[in-house]
Amino acid sequence: MPKYICKYGNPINLSDIPSPNQLLMIEDVDYDKFFEKIDAEELYEEMMLVVRCDTCKRLYVFESGFDEEPIMYKIEEGVWNKRI
User: Fold this and answer.
1) CA-CA distance, 14 to 33, in Å (whole number)?
2) Would you kindly state where each structural domain of the chain is located, as residue ranges?
3) Any bridge partners for residue 71, and if so which?
4) 3-state SS record for 15-41
5) Could you tell me if 62 and 72 are in contact, meaning their C-beta atoms sit under 8 angstroms apart?
6) Which are the contacts of 68, defined by CB distance < 8 A and separation ≥ 6?
7) pLDDT digits (tens, 9 = 90+) for 4-52
8) Which domain of life is it from (predicted)?
9) CB 52 within 8 A of CB 23
10) Which residues pair with 63 in a beta bridge?
11) Residue 12: is it exposed, middle or buried by C-beta count within 10 angstroms (0-12/13-18/19+)?
């Protein structure tokens, strides 16, 4: 998927690999399965894909891949901190 369009029409470029607009997320319980063994491919398959719009800062969480509509999160107030 080279590009995703934000709800407000902002294009989100996903063609770069690795992509600065794509994040990977995994539940802590699922992460524990990999504590003593790291298989990068298996770990990647367990993760949810998160796309971040660098214009409006909304997060689009794809729990089951790009075939289903994402859950959208937006910042309520404050300044977006790109690196914590």
Assistant:
1) 29
2) 3-73
3) 61
4) CCCCCCCEEEECCHHHHHHHCCCCCHH
5) no
6) 62
7) 888 888 899 888 888 888 888 877 787 777 777 777 777 777 778 899 8
8) Bacteria
9) yes
10) 65
11) buried
